[in-house]
Amino acid sequence: MSSLPIAPKDHARLMDGVYRMQRHIYDATRKYYLLGRDQLIGELAPPPGGTVLEIGCGTARNLILAARRWPEARFFGVDISREMLATARVQVARAGLSDRITLMQADATRLEPGLFGLAGFDRIFISYTLSMIPDWQGALRSATGLLMRDGRLHVVDFGQQDRLPQLWRKLLFRWLEQFHVVPRASIGVVMSDLAQGAQRSLAIHRPLRGYAWAGIMGPAVQA
To answer: Which of 3, 106, 147, 208 could crosslink 151 through cysteines, CB 3.0-4.6 Å?
Structure first.
């Protein structure tokens, strides 16, 4: 299963169309199958005063949980969808976290140092977003380039379901396709290549019998 190339402006319009109404029920429905998000949040462990960026922040559900879990850090989120960010801003304000969570519309494949006026981030996480970004490899490259020297990139997304019943895989992939979600079979390979090129450590596994990919790209490997 593959996705056709799509321009960033077209992708933004597509995501706005998909989530214009769904954003109101997104968190209530996705909690049943976006597995591993809370574990990722628990593993972030940013340093006191550290900076954390979520790429593809959606409704800000993850950012709010992370900000509560790690109260000494500052949090930032980007998303290509104005519709999702409208909900995110309301949620952040309702949670009383507008002073610690900053949001911005941006294309995940075109993020550069200087984002939010920062040289880089201590932690970056991407949760079930790569499967919705046409140039997902570019998004991973952008994220890697934004890491501080001792920073970590945390990723969780759909796996290939290869150790689960084939009927389950077929039904899930068909369901995901309705929302323009395409599980990426080579996340592990791409992250490995990026980690090697940046001389960083990498730990990656496929939890829940291949239901998901979960990876952490760590600090630069010491010579």
So the answer is: 147
